[in-house]
């Protein structure tokens, strides 16, 4: 399969043909200690939300499979070469992983689209770019970290060093299966840890492929293991395992609570959580360009079918410009091309499955029953027979007490609320149990700074949304979790601080 062509260079029929050729070759076995592993022999189906067909039967992991993977990781960390390699050597392996990701870019992107339903253009241009870029960034960072030597009196020498934490259990969701895996695996490997990666049971295929690529790149056996399986089985086994030192989890707040309990009931392992969001996007009347603000609001909620923890699902608009901004978002929703994710012309693909469609429709119905006005969408879209598609949806006249304004929908549904004063806007924005991200549109520099400081969110975008790169941390406040992915700060999750005091 070619790896150097952008998706648009191939047509719909080309991608359909490549999908048919790839499906029989998809990985279906766990990756443990550098080799494929069958486990107990049971399997679960991976259903493509594109058309509802089973694309693979994947080995189902539980306590036995997690035990084997953790034991392999423990050996690799306790007695293997990886933690003892120089940072330069570890960095070279991460760079080789990035190179191999680029070589297999089309195949990996197609795998993501088949199991996840997002458009092939986004799998290729967003997901795979993030995967390769993350491994490359941490590969380049690995030998540039320094320890500390605090000033002491003349009779002593103090050293503060960072050491790898040990075995990391990384549990990632289905909405960005490779991006979020990379955000956890790459810094953990750069720090010298060994990892057991458990992907969502909805999207295990791309993670299993990544495990094979990492071994091909020269990662010592057992340093990265991938176990497919369900949350109550494989996830719980990983969370309660006494030989796991750190859990790094991205997913729902409800499941995050489980991992904290697992840690309390086992070895008090550190648990780092990146959880849900109900992010506000505030548009003030002095926004530099209301048309751009509206277009960005529409893009933000409909990108990745709205299945994004940072999605700007609450549009807070000043009453004086609410009609103008809302009308523009509604117009964009009406022209957005919902289609087959294997068609490069598609702008919004399939939701993660039929259950997601039903849940999103229920949210919309309850919102309308509570008094919100449906301005666009609100119904499933029939695109590919058997597929899971939903219209881009906008509701206004939403009030702060409605579920539409409080619950994470995780779908292409925008709730519009209005305000009259800046203080009211800030109060509305912070009136949520979450605190992952926020947006603000204003031409006033002082307003930008003061409001950003008042917003209880891990990231605040001003006159943009969902921008940034690997140099900045990502994570939330409140029930959106704690700890940070991306940037040098991610290494703090996978290292221990040691003080050495030498009396001279």
What does the average pLDDT come to? 97
Classified in CATH, the superfamily of the largest domain is: Aldehyde Dehydrogenase, Chain A, domain 1
β-strand number: 21
Number of helices: 15
Uncertain segments:
none
Computed structural class: alpha/beta
CATH topology of the largest domain: Aldehyde Dehydrogenase, Chain A, domain 1
Alpha carbon gap, first and last residue = 63 Å
CATH class of the largest domain: Alpha Beta
**Percentage of β-strand residues:** 15-25%
What's the architecture of the largest domain, going by CATH? 3-Layer(aba) Sandwich
Question: What's the overall geometry?
Answer: globular
Summarize this, please?
The active site is at residue 274. This protein is 39% helix and 19% strand. The protein is α/β, with parallel strands linked by helices and 504 residues long.
List the helices and strands and how they pair.
Blueprint: H1 12-22, E1 30-32, E2 35-37, E3 43-47, E4 54-59, H2 63-78, H3 87-103, H4 105-116, H5 120-141, E5 156-164, E6 167-171, H6 177-191, E7 194-198, H7 204-216, E8 224-226, H8 231-240, E9 246-250, H9 253-265, E10 270-274, E11 280-283, H10 290-302, E12 314-318, H11 322-335, H12 354-369, E13 373-376, E14 393-396, H13 403-406, E15 413-419, H14 422-430, E16 434-435, E17 437-441, H15 445-454, E18 459-462, E19 477-478, E20 481-482, E21 495-503
Parallel strand pairs: 6-7, 6-9, 7-8, 9-10, 11-12, 11-17, 12-15, 14-15, 17-18
Antiparallel strand pairs: 1-2, 3-4, 5-21, 10-20, 13-14, 16-19
